[in-house]
Amino acid sequence: MWRMADFELTRRPRRLRQNPALRTLTAETRLHPADFILPLFIADGLDAPREITSMPGVYQHTEDSLKTICHEALDAGVKAIDLFGVPLEEDKDATGSVAWAEDGILNRGIAALRDEFGDDLVIIADTCLDEFTDHGHCGVIRTDSRGNEYVDNDETIKLYCDMAVSQARAGAHMVSPSGMMDGQIGQIRKALDNEGFDDVVIMAYSAKYASKFFGPFRDAVGSSLKGDRRTYQQDPANVRESLLETELDIAEGADIVMVKPALPYLDVLAKVAETSPVPVAAYQVSGEYAMMKAAGANGWIDFEETMMESLVSIKRAGADQILTYYAIEAAKQLNG
Ligand code: PBG
């Protein structure tokens, strides 16, 4: 048995840090462009792409600019995108019905991408109602006997099922339920299978927290939400329920599970990754992007280097896939 004292003069960890080649050789974690999933927004009624104020460099897209950025992603080696739809204000209603309309903005975007890219690009659809409801909640609102409003779990899931099937029909390779209703994965799996879409993958937002880091995203999709999502998204104080949520989702048929946000929840990610028998994705959310962007713009941090550091940290913590608004730029940096 050796003792630390025997080695204290010869054991020099800095030896492996001498130059870039040695550091690269001994790096435990390597990012690759194919690790990334690029979240994208398509908006109805736009003539030209519109930059999102709180997310500089991120745009609401037209169908044309959406195709262009997907080509750019593929050229950089990014093989998957996650599409969100931004409907016209006047198309929003209490149930978010334009979400599953064949000619709704999200399904039009999915169909256009599947036409353009076939199976070369993994097309992931966000399966949630909050962009489409006039109240901004992720589900249907009911009033209980005491007159209090609540988001009805099972009624909401029925709509998620319609939405997922419509997305599969439009050409999505993958649906990603992000509404945190209990039992949503099992019901969506059943609905997809019943319609013959047993090959459509489900990426479950399993451990999704009621996070203020989503702030800029609400800008990005023109959310109508007043209030918060604390009755369905998880409490930031908790980690055990993330293990329960992911276990349930896997039991219900999730092909990929996700932890979200990423950087403030690396402990959750590490715990989930330790035991998950399916791939684990992490979502570096809008607020994470916006904070680093803002600090970079002020010259307070080096935006690019900080972004890469955050991405390698997310992978080191256990993410197999990383959803990041920085996907194309990061891939380009990796490609040299
Ligand atoms: C809900 C949804 C949200 C995000 C992705 N899907 C917002 C929310 O739950 O309030 C946030 C993504 C981000 O902040 O980048 N459909």
UniProtKB/TrEMBL annotation:
Mg(2+) binds at E245. GO terms for biological process: protoporphyrinogen IX biosynthetic process. Gene3D superfamilies: Aldolase class I (3.20.20.70). The active site is at K208 (schiff-base intermediate with substrate), K260 (schiff-base intermediate with substrate). Its EC number is 4.2.1.24. Transmembrane segments: none annotated. Pathway: Porphyrin-containing compound metabolism; protoporphyrin-IX biosynthesis; coproporphyrinogen-III from 5-aminolevulinate: step 1/4. GO terms for cellular component: cytosol. Keywords: Heme biosynthesis, Lyase, Magnesium, Metal-binding, Porphyrin biosynthesis. Catalyzes an early step in the biosynthesis of tetrapyrroles. Binds two molecules of 5-aminolevulinate per subunit, each at a distinct site, and catalyzes their condensation to form porphobilinogen. Belongs to the ALAD family. This is Delta-aminolevulinic acid dehydratase. It comes from Corynebacterium lujinxingii.
